[in-house]
Design goal:
The protein is of the alpha+beta class. Helix content is about 30%, strand content about 40%. It contains 3 helices and 12 strands, in the order αββββββββββββαα. Strands 2, 3, 5 and 8 form a 4-stranded antiparallel β-sheet that branches. The C terminus is likely disordered.
Length: about 150
């Protein structure tokens, strides 16, 4: 009988340890994680040690797109899923454009966009592709400038 009690105690302590480990989340610096409770936004986990309720809370996976250059210098667009939102400032470089002014001077314009996510809830849940929105805004503005010139 005592062997059975020891096995039951070991089993329940193991289950308790697994539940405890699944409720502790470590968030890295300059990132945040979005928590959903039963499929609805609950809170944002800040950098550091956080505790969530197991079985009810889950970390939302967010689809993001990143651009990288391969060894030949060709730009590659990657679509990946992450469980965190990166809060660091990022740079998006647009290709240079040739513009002709009113006095027939040819200029080459190179634009860079620096952006940073301030509200991870809006970035991760409300918008599907925030980076495409930045690109579209820049394209619209450059077309207006080309028509004026």
């Amino acid at each position: 009988m005592t062997v059975f009690i020891v096995i039951v105690i070991v089993f329940f302590s193991f289950v308790f340890l697994v539940i405890l480990m699944s409720s502790i989340r470590l968030v890295q610096q300059a990132t945040v994680k979005i928590v959903e409770r039963l499929g609805k936004y609950h809170k944002t986990l800040q950098p550091g040690l956080n505790i969530i309720m197991p079985f009810f809370d889950k970390i939302k996976t967010i689809n993001t797109r990143i651009t990288e250059r391969d060894y030949r210098g060709k730009t590659i667009l990657l679509s990946i899923q992450r469980s965190y939102v990166d809060l660091r400032e990022r740079v998006f470089d647009f290709p240079s454009q040739s513009v002709i002014t009113k006095d027939n001077v040819i200029l080459e314009i190179n634009a860079m966009l620096y952006f940073q996510i301030f509200d991870p809830f809006k970035s991760g849940i409300r918008s599907r592709r925030p980076r495409n929105g930045y690109r579209k805004t820049h394209t619209d503005n450059s077309e207006k400038c080309n028509r004026r010139a």
